[in-house]
Amino acid sequence: MDELLAKVRDRMRKALEIVVQDIATIRSGRATPALIEHMVITAYDGTQRLKLMEMATITTTDAKTLVVVPFDPSVISDIERGIHEANVGLTPVTEGESLRITIPPLSEERRNEYIKLARAKLEAGRIMIRQVRHDAMQELKRSEVGGTITQDQRKVAEKKIQELTDEMMTEIDAVRERKERELTELS
Question: Does pTM top 0.85 for this prediction?
């Protein structure tokens, strides 16, 4: 029983982590490495496709500026091209052996689009968590029918799984509130 609950908690945590990472990629007018670190860049004359975070150090110098310093300076033009081709509204400028990206302010229309996008991604996260709950409930019913647990044990476990689900939903709500606040702040 405890093993099932631990497995459910693990799967729900992973779903939440996926959602948090996904939400971090939504631009908010504030510079954060998460905006670009997962971009896939084609480098070395098209022979390799790597995530930007595997190719460079990404830092913020202030709330509006990202600095990308490639581990191998010979790929700086590949990184610049890759960021342009990603079509995310960011324009890198080469400065010696680094790239500087200034994050432009968001229009009101764009902010509203990003809020809708964030809500859609968060709803997908809710669905993933509910699916984990559903799978666990089915497993409990099979265990009861198979005779490995009693009806009382199943009910206790179902209650714990629901409490876990509610806890995860609360965390998703907190992520939504933070992201919406971030998106609506005028910078």
Answer: no
